[in-house]
């Protein structure tokens, strides 16, 4: 029997974040699939992803797209709808923006692995486009643009045959905004690669994150300053300049680092911080796979990935003092590194691949 022709759709390929790590596992499992994406920055994702035959949209050819692709957001609905899937049997989209809204023939089933409904269009407009971010005029201009995008996102929700959410938290957002009932399959964590070693913790806190507004890196910086704990920040993004300018205390911005350096930092850090409200959160589980505790805001996906008192500390309030108290408690708490690691192993890449493959193999059940 011939293998089904599978198309995989991803919003854009500009770096290896959580969504791209899930994509990588699917590309390993389905190496003959073809990949569709609005923008592909060559060399920014893993060789496993790069090997797939890749189709890009007209956005790929716009000026300065590698650096300014987010500025073309109003064009994304038109761009994503121009892909053709006539030659495929099945489409799997990984969507946090518009990939879920592809147009496909009725005979072609569409499974969406939903990373989240669009944050900036639905419930986090101010974090991205509030007056303090883009000025009063910029915010006023963007508000109707994002309202229109939210309406389009809602109106195209039924183009998906089956939703799979990355967490129960995201499943709730899918019910609220799309009025659809999803299955939950947690994203993959490379628990083989991220593992403990013999080195003991050092007295510093770690953040591994894209430097974008909703991640609340400013809160981590302020909390570590109050606690008197050095902070190392791995990652880059549009907020970096303003964060560096405002940073107080012992803060080191390391930029993007290779995985071996990130693993070493996880192993050495006294705590890894998750100050923002996450849809799931791969970083806390990578740190836990290395046997190290996490201090996280007790909302969103962290409630599903951090066990309070066993693998880390959940902070009730999004304030510097509350996170300062959490950091101090975590440093003083006698965590068992093997207990922490065993918890993380429940989220392995193998488990994700098997659960997704089983879902993809039974489109009639959707």
What does this structure look like?
Helix 9 (217-227) crosses helix 14 and helix 12 (282-289) crosses helix 15. Helix 12 (282-289) links the parallel strand 11 and strand 12. This protein has 366 residues and is α/β, with parallel strands linked by helices. It has a seven-stranded parallel sheet with strand order 3-2-1-4-5-6-7. The protein has two domains: 6-188 and 349-365, Rossmann fold (3-Layer(aba) Sandwich); 202-346, Rossmann fold (3-Layer(aba) Sandwich), CATH 3.40.50. The protein is globular, with a radius of gyration of 20 Å. It has 16 helices and 13 strands.
Topology, pairings included?
Layout: E1 6-10, H1 18-29, E2 34-37, H2 47-50, E3 53-56, H3 65-68, H4 76-80, E4 90-95, E5 109-114, H5 119-122, H6 125-129, H7 131-155, E6 162-165, H8 168-178, E7 183-184, E8 202-208, H9 217-227, E9 231-234, H10 240-246, E10 251-255, H11 259-268, E11 269-274, H12 282-289, E12 294-297, H13 302-305, E13 312-315, H14 320-332, H15 337-344, H16 349-361
Parallel strand pairs: 1-2, 1-4, 2-3, 4-5, 5-6, 6-7, 8-9, 8-11, 9-10, 11-12, 12-13
